[in-house]
Amino acid sequence: MKQNAKLDRLPGPVLMPVLPLRDVVIYPHMVIPLFVGRGKSIHALDLAMQSNKRIVLVAQRGAEVDEPEIKDLYNMGTLSNVLQLLRLPDGTVKVLVEGVQRVCIHQFTETEVCFMANVSVLEAIPEESESPDVHALVRSLLGAFDQYVKLNKKIPGEVAASISGIEDPVRLTDTIAAHMTLKLDEKQKILEFCELQERLEHLLGLVEGEIDILQVEKRIRSRVKQQMEKTQREYYLNEQMKAIQKELGDLDDIPNEIEDLARRIEKAGMPKEAKDKAKAELGKLKMMPPMSAEATVVRNYVDWLVSVPWKKRTKIHQDLLEAEAILETDHYGLEKVKERILEYLAVQQRARKLKGPILCLVGPPGVGKTSLGRSIARATNRKFVRMSLGGVRDEAEIRGHRRTYIGSLPGKIIQNLAKVEVRNPLFLFDEIDKMAMDFRGDPSSALLEVLDPEQNNTFSDHYLEVDFDLSDVMFVATANSLNIPSPLLDRMEVIRIPGYTEDEKLNIASRYLVPKQITDNGLKKGELAITDEAILDIIRFYTREAGVRNLEREIAKICRKVVKEITLKQVEGQITVQPELLQKYLGVRRFRYGLAEEQDQIGQVTGLAWTEVGGELLSIEAALVPGKGKLIHTGQLGEVMQESIQAAMTVVRSRAESLGIDPEFHQKSDVHIHVPEGATPKDGPSAGIGMCTALVSALTRIPARASVAMTGEITLRGEVLPIGGLKEKLLAAHRGSVAIVVIPEENRKDLTEIPENILAKLDIRPVRWIDQVLVIALQTLPEPKPRAMVNTEETVVDVVVKPVSVLEGVRAH
């Protein structure tokens, strides 16, 4: 209540009985029946009837309180007249009351029989009703309430007419407030407004808010009604159309879904088995209610059957020169793959029907396996389909779901064939080595049928339930490693794509990557040039990879920075990126190029390792500490590599005297072998000769040459056995500026696959025995014990007297 309101108060507070009300606020001039059942309330009514039939009606704050206390009652109420009182048989009282005036309650008094209160009656000053603002508010309120009555169907239309006849603004606001659907606290707030203008403004705001809500409700009801009417109308028209078609029978020219499916079945060119199946399902569909769930399943099945390309195929290009030109344009190098594709096309010219080859391109990331698949498709004029198998662990991805499952679909193979609409595309299975298996099945086993040329002419999809011929499809798979199940690997022709050499990367960058990034970054011709020397420095000092993906990122980074400089007008004319500008655009060098400059170290040997991303240089360290012969190995070494260490230890012990080593060293010292980069797991037998050389260097205190790298498996007799991944390892040695590489003699035949420029820059020395390795790798030969000889391929050579002859015997380029 406003304390500074302009009010006329009747003299002195008067003690009056109080009747607490639940969920209702009584306004002046309001007549309402009440049902009273609480004892104190009935006593208050009795007191009122005994005096002047007047009582104060006050709303309680919470309707859930059965026995209210003084704190539960508001401090503003309505003085009312009791018009009629009727006692009912159940003890309750029905009373008819009429609100008279607002009263302010100064103090409550709670007696044993009822609530009493000291109240004073409040009346507004009459002059306030005559102000222009009040007249304007009254007019706005009447208009808003009239609109409210039209929207609210619960209030009779006569109410608006009767209210418009009220001339007193005070009575008008109270009457409108009584007819509004408001919360209790909002109704009480209106009662407590003493100034008429404030009361009118607040009530007008409430009415307009209710009008907005009612309009939103009306729009929602109208929209729902329209949707229901539209659905009912469509259903009625569909039923009418069916009735008309039924009456017309065969004379009906209006196309329907059943006839459309029947025509598509005839045109699809299905084999007899599939055609009979489609017709049988179509017959079932005719007998089903069109709105049933089963009809939808059958309709989808027939639709998939006719969507599969049973006979449509693209014409394969057989022009070898054109195909070769396309492959050369798209990719630099990769001669074996290109040769295999041209062989296939040549045979296709002669033998018109040839099962599509199934190739598996294996190589590190970034060497162009996926893009090569697109080029093969373009060279052979096949449509290209790519399916990524990374993370696929559900057999249904390949074979599809059976139709008994809700939402079942064919497998991805059938889906992709339906999408390209031909039966002889190039289908690329990307990342075939990343497949997994779980309780839902093994997708690699499902691929066995797909990738077998002798079986895939009768490929059975679980959803279609009829055989489909995949023999015209050319399948190409890509993988980073041969971590593929053996039965699946056996069905594919593996073509290894090793990492690129520096020269190949330089050519790829200058021919493809730089022009592509200049275009992609919005640079115009003549705005940027990157010299070959700068590209070579990017390859050496900012990337270390088998492919060219990071190289492309670095070139893109240069292009972005140049675009920024040109946009900000920091430079004018063509920007030529020289090696000395690389630090400005790419930051400090990330990698060291070249290990040959390092000093020779005792017990440290450079090995060569194969990884999924190409070859890597592997540092092998050996150290002796006083102890009792314990062999320690660290660096996350696998079981095979640990066994190689033990074999190397046995070789050293068996040759201890000839190497000038104390035969009892294994009892007096602990030997620790460590391979750095301990966070990376390492395994394989090819570091055997490196382990043995590091042990000999540590035991004899003779430094090992830092310019020598080696790879080879060792036997207990000291023989060096062949290894795999030779090309990747030699590329790693070339990247690291290693001068001499020691390889097993039996790997000499693999040197034919190594590029000539790599062979020219590496001094490659094939060896058969560990003694030859030690001659090459150690700075000096160890002093043997008296009468100690070294056996090298049945020729006994005195190591001390004739070291040069041994060197000459093992040098081979």
Describe what this molecule looks like in 3D.
This protein has 813 residues and is an alpha/beta fold. It has 27 helices and 27 strands. The strands form 7 sheets. It has a 7-stranded mixed beta sheet with strand order 19-20-18-17-21-24-25. A hairpin with a 5-residue loop joins β22 and β23. α7 packs antiparallel against α8 (272-287) and α17 (502-520) crosses α18. It starts with 6 loop residues before the first strand and ends with a helix.
Unreliable residue stretches: 1-10, 250-254, 788-813
Shape: elongated
Tally the helices. Answer: 27
Strand content: 15-25%
Overall pLDDT score: 81
**Main beta-sheet annotation:** 7 strands, mixed
Question: Summary?
Answer:
This protein is of the alpha/beta class and 813 residues long. It is 42% helix and 19% strand.
Question: What layout of secondary structure does this protein have?
Answer:
Elements: E1 7-9, E2 14-21, E3 31-36, H1 39-50, E4 54-59, E5 76-87, E6 93-110, E7 115-124, H2 132-151, H3 157-164, H4 169-179, H5 184-192, H6 196-248, H7 257-267, H8 272-287, H9 293-307, H10 320-330, H11 335-350, E8 358-362, H12 369-380, E9 384-388, H13 396-399, H14 412-420, E10 426-430, H15 443-450, E11 459-460, E12 467-468, E13 474-479, H16 486-490, E14 493-496, H17 502-520, E15 528-530, H18 532-541, H19 549-567, E16 575-577, H20 582-586, E17 604-611, E18 614-626, E19 631-634, H21 639-654, H22 665-668, E20 669-674, H23 688-700, E21 708-710, E22 713-714, E23 720-721, H24 726-735, E24 740-744, H25 756-761, E25 763-767, H26 770-777, E26 790-792, E27 795-797, H27 803-810
Parallel strand pairs: 2-4, 8-13, 8-14, 9-10, 10-13, 15-16, 17-21, 19-20, 21-24, 24-25
Antiparallel strand pairs: 1-7, 2-7, 3-6, 4-5, 5-6, 6-7, 11-12, 17-18, 18-20, 22-23, 26-27
Helix pairs in contact: 2-3, 2-4, 2-6, 4-6, 7-8, 8-9, 10-11, 10-12, 17-18, 17-19, 21-23, 23-26
